Amino acid sequence: MKKVIFIFSLFFIGFSAQAQEIKTVKKKKNAKVAFKVDGICGMCKKRIEIAALKTKGVKFAIWDVKTHQINLILDERKASLNTVKQNIANVGHDVENFIATDEAYSSVHPCCKYRDSEIMLDHEGELKKKKN
Amino acid sequence: MDQENPKDNLGVAGATVNWLNTNIGTITNEKGWFTIPFKKEYKKLVISYIGYKTDTLIIRDLTPIHHFITIQNELKGITIRSKRDAVQKSLFATANTFTVNNDELLKAACCNLAESFETNPSIDVSFSDALTGTRQIQMLGLKSPYLQIMQENIPSIRGAAQAFGLTFTPGTWVESIQITKGAGSVVNGFESISGQINAELVKPFSDNKFFLNTYSSLNGRLELNTHFNRRVSEKWQSGLYIHGNYRGEKFDKNKDNFIDVPLANQINVMNRWQYTDAQNGWVSFINIRFLNDEKQTGEINFNPTLDKGNTDSWGSEIDTKRFETSLKLGYVFPEIPYQSVGLQLAYSNHRQDSYFGLNVYDIKHESLYSNLLFNSIIGDTRSKFKTGINFTYDKYNELVNTTNYKRKENSLGIFFEYAFDNLEDFSLTAGVRVDTHNLLGTFITPRLHLRYAPWENGVFRASAGRGKRSANIFAENQQLFASSRKIDIDAVDGNIYGLNPEIAWNYGVSYLQKFNLFNKKGDITFDFYRTDFSNQVVVDWENPQAVSFYNLNGKSIANNFQLELNYELAKNLNLRTAFKYFDISTDYKTGKLQKPLQPNNRFFANISYETATKDNGAQWKLDFTFNNIGEQRLPDTATNPTQYQLPINSERYSLLNSQITKVFSNTFEIYAGVENFTNVQQVNPILGSENPFGPNFDSTIVYSPIFGRAIYAGLRFKIK
Predict the structure, then answer these.
(1) ipTM, interface predicted TM-score of the complex
(2) What residue ranges do the domains of chain B occupy?
(3) What is B201-719's CATH topology?
(4) Hey, is the C-beta of A122 within 8 angstroms of any chain B C-beta?
(5) Which residues of A touch B80 (CB under 8 A)?
(6) Rounded (10°) CA dihedral B477, B688, B683, B111
């Protein structure tokens, strides 16, 4: 009897070790990713989120105006993070290592020109007003 | 590590850790541990994870880091001070839906849900009869049975509760109301035809710790509302809500020997429990509620103990007891915020014992509702769906004079609702459900909503859908018992009182444009809706001696057009106006007629003004509501003796209500108001009132207020 239990537990350990291995190698179906995207306003938010969601494999995208962080849930089997970043840069928003081309940047609405310090200041005023 | 949950010593797995402004980063492992390459120029380490606050740490040396991250509490979001409108019209919702929030509900002295629509142009409020003073609501020209009225998304005012149910929800219990015009959602059943109204009740979590409201009016009505809310444990909150109203004085201002408003007495108690475990994604509500309502009306010297059941004096008593309980359970997958499972269970037991002169009407209705639904996405969050299964059971037992009607209904349904939103200018909701019902058969209910925004601040909507229901002919038309009319049912071997179920299609289009004129906000809405009955239970009371119920043979169509304009005239001074046009016709056995007691049009205006709020919340609020109600066709009385004949149409009339509120501070306010300022009164609301047991007695033809001017005052006291 003891032997049987021993064999069973061996099996079990073996299984769980294998399972764990698979987990680390396996690409996650619902991987959570977060990174920074440059932008300033609600219009930017919409543009960034739509660009992310339009990337195949991206299931969920929320960009925060204040922290500039985008939180994604994506299927790693279908989407690569770089594609998402590239797609966001393509609509005119800078991502780490994926700087939007001048052409893409020029396509954003004048109020979204996040590289312009004056416009940024304008929006900061807005944020403050809302906070008070 | 999770700030809230450090005990089990588990870290947060899968959190992102990276150096600020670089792409050098890593993800924490299953224990919440991480290692990250370090360079001298890296100073700021950013730790982030969905659902948690993002933290930035300043790193000076290579000592191990042990950091707690805090759960992001959604309730602590940014507070936006731009004042929320009391009625919110969305540019983004797919259906033609608007939300009436608490500020709006306070504009009238709404003592109960039935009265809370008086400042709302989309819903028409009328009186059901000359005796009970019960208000009836209508949308798109159709009475409340054709609306689906829900309490926190559980169908509530239906069956036996249809006639008086709205008066059983005290106004202070209501947190907000969502009104959807036209075809509703398939999630809550197949019964809705012309619209859906959902009342969200106050929640133990967000309501005041203590709230007190008293109300008194010169017509003898006294009301008292108290709320107690407390935190029982970290995850449990509980609320106890007690409502009482009383009217003990008899008034007969129009000298017809009948009291103008009934004597009333209501006790209504609700206990709510709210469970929230945001961390693991669980939310739950448990409700228990008990109601006892007593009304007495009739001749001024009517004494129930002596005169009940005989012809000495005409009187009526309506006693209602209702018990209800519900459970809601929701689970949001913590890892996948767009996926959730919900369960709703509700049971109610409603019992009404009543008599109207010599007519007896008792009804018992037991009801069970259950709904299990699953929400998720297809691909990404632009495509969402809801699917589920529900089961309902209703048991009716009615006594109409000497006839007993019993019936049991049960249905099992599955539904699927798909919603697409491109997050820009287009969205769509398409739902379908299949139900198998023991009396209505197996049938499909499709419903569709579309939204298209052609340009900024403008939105075009369209909807279409089907509804089916069994008509509770007595419960819905019980005002007819207070007349000498004979009841006649033209049975056709159907399953419900021998009649067939009602089936209707509703189509509608709507256009909303928001604008900014002279730097002030405004919006304009055009609505057109049409309800087309393929079958209806026609309530024919065109013969003054009888009321007949029969299935539609021909057409029955309700057309409704509404133009609404809202504009901020000056700072804190808002105007809301609406014009409505109705064309509601039905093929009766005697030919096509306009629906009786339906105004052909209505003009509505509301002006509200508030002074600026001081730091302690002190301010004045002022509100005027004007209604101009068009001609109404009166039921045919041509065969009556001349003294009991009424004109073909009623005359136009106007009503003016007003209320003033003085807010002293965030804890205390008083209000006073006048209803029916100009004292409009129907001259002779009860036909044959001098001989109530005679052949011409009829209290059902009511087209304007019975009680004249009414003055009221009240106070509200709350502790946060």
Answers:
(1) 0.70
(2) 201-719
(3) Maltoporin; Chain A (2.40.170)
(4) no
(5) 130
(6) -40
